[in-house]
Specification:
77% of the residues lie in helices and 0% in strands. It is mostly helical. It has one domain (15-458): Amino acid/polyamine transporter I. Helix 2 (17-28) packs across helix 15 (311-345), helix 4 crosses helix 5 (79-90) and helix 9 (176-201) runs antiparallel to helix 15. The chain is globular. It binds phenylalanine (PHE) and sodium ion. Phenylalanine is lined by residues 27-28, 30-33, 107, 110, 235-236, 238, 241, 243, 329, 332-333. Keywords: Membrane, Symport, Transmembrane, Transmembrane helix, Transport. It is found in: Membrane. Belongs to the sodium:neurotransmitter symporter (SNF) (TC 2.A.22) family.
Length: 459
């Protein structure tokens, strides 16, 4: 659509395939891999859950990532307006753009609690740097963590710092330095995970952890576990909320969407599995509970750093790198909303960032309180499926398990059933066989899988 071209030209493109991969990896690799993946794996019994998760990545996540990048590149604008441009170009109902609105909303809700967990990571930099982890027992490490959770003001301070870090970058709208940093700091995070895996091998429980992660015991798999695995595939790959559309809009035409999407998915999965291999040997060696919940990495990794040589240094570096990974994800959570406010409402970037950021920060306070003062408050507790869920739990559940899969389902239906096949072929330019595999998976497998999981869990 010609009318859009001046806007597009103003936005510029990624300099290379690498620049896109770095930005997309920066978004994908984050707390989802290192904090969330291990604890939900522990809660859902290990191997069978991991297998379902890997299947969801390959057969649902990857095809949808390609579809989202494709929408972004075709539209060349922010997610909502890319949808608007494509629907008008292809003569489809403009209501489809609501798909991107769901995403923008989901990103905003996720950021509110993501920032609180990012704050935990900030707090552990100080704990590790001052040597407080050295020689501690599992009990005393557990006490440090529950001490943090019971202290709303400290949590608020770190949550505020994390949000401020995110807002500064989004307000400036320039990320080139950050993308270059991804190319150094992500490999560094990977290496530090390897260091912890190395330590984990000395605990004598590595084999048990490998068996826990990779030997499926289907008696431990529940329908709600399948929903969690599916939801996490969306969460960890940053899908269902327009991030990959936003980043895809900067992707030059001659770059393969399939190859770049595969690269990002593989890297994301590698980091998650490595985190699992780092954490579970420590869990078993110390007689901890794999299903301990959201605190799992903060109760296990500090033990490793407290026992290994140069642990204070490694621990400090590790949590710094974790903050960086969370920061690049946080930026991508806020970006689609700010871009939309800018384009749509004609607001200036600084004002939109400030407004959206402050509301998000306020909402984060509800998550902070649900860790302590409001820990018994379950607003939707009258429904069996939400029993005992705090505001924090509800936000996590609503976004990861409902909004993101729903957004992804709509993307699959829109691209698979409504966009013209010719448009898809020209964007993807893959061999006809690979194209038709992708097309079939997207049209049939993905929507049916998401719908079946939804129906089993919600009805
Ligand atoms: N993928 C990020 C992570 O795993 C979280 C995220 C979700 C970021 C959705 C953007 C969009 O930590
Ligand atoms: Na991730």
């Amino acid at each position: 659509s010609g009318a859009m071209d001046p806007v597009r030209a103003k936005r510029g493109l990624w300099s290379s395939r690498l620049a896109f991969i770095l930005a997309a990896t920066g978004s994908a690799v984050g707390l989802g891999n290192i904090w969330k993946f291990p604890y939900i794996t522990g809660e859902n019994g290990g191997g069978a859950f991991v297998l379902v998760y890997l299947l969801c990545i390959a057969a649902v996540g990857l095809p949808i990532m390609m579809a989202e990048v494709l929408i972004g590149r075709r539209g060349g604008l922010s997610p909502v307006n890319s949808m608007r441009a494509i629907t008008s170009h292809e003569g489809l109902k403009p209501a489809w753009r609501w798909l991107a609105v769901i995403g923008v909303l989901a990103g905003f809700l996720i950021l509110s609690f993501y920032s609180v967990i990012g704050g935990w990571a900030i707090s552990y930099v100080g704990t590790a740097a001052t040597g407080q982890l050295t020689g501690q027992t599992a009990e005393s490490i557990g006490a440090i963590f529950s001490g943090l959770l019971s202290d709303p003001l400290t949590l608020l301070m770190w949550h505020t710092l994390f949000m401020a870090l995110v807002m500064v970058v989004v307000a400036r709208g320039v990320r080139s330095g950050l993308e270059r940093a991804v190319s150094i700091l992500m490999p560094a995070l990977f290496v530090l995970l390897l260091v912890v895996v190395g330590y984990a091998m000395t605990t004598g429980h590595f084999g048990q952890a490998v068996a826990f992660l990779f030997q499926p015991d289907f008696s431990k798999l529940t329908t709600s576990g399948v929903l969690v695995a599916l939801g996490h595939a969306f969460f960890t790959l940053s899908l269902g909320m327009g991030v990959m559309m936003a980043y895809g809009s900067y992707l030059p035409k001659d770059i393969s969407i399939a190859k770049t999407s595969i690269t990002v998915s593989v890297m994301d999965t590698a980091v998650a599995l490595l985190a699992g291999l780092a954490i579970f040997p420590i869990v078993f060696a110390n007689g901890l509970e794999p299903g301990a919940g959201p605190g799992l990495i903060f109760q296990t990794l500090p033990l490793a750093f407290g026992q290994m040589p140069m642990g204070s240094l490694f621990g400090t570096l590790f949590f710094l790198l974790l903050i960086f990974a969370a920061w690049t994800s946080g930026i991508s959570l806020l970006e689609p909303l700010v871009e939309w406010l800018e384009e749509q409402k004609g607001m200036n970037r600084k004002v939109s960032t400030l407004g959206a950021g402050i509301v998000c920060w306020l909402l984060g306070i509800a998550s902070i309180l649900s860790l302590n003062l409001w820990s018994d408050f379950a607003p939707l507790g009258m429904f069996a499926m939400f029993e005992g869920k705090t505001i924090f739990d509800l936000l996590d559940f609503l976004t990861a398990n409902i909004l993101l899969p729903l957004g992804g389902l709509l993307v699959a239906v829109f691209v698979g059933w409504y966009m013209s096949r010719q448009a898809l072929e020209s964007e993807l330019s893959m061999s006809p066989t690979v194209f038709s595999v992708w097309y079939r998976v997207l049209r049939y497998f993905t929507p049916i899988a998401v719908a079946v999981v939804f129906v089993y869990n919600l009805v």
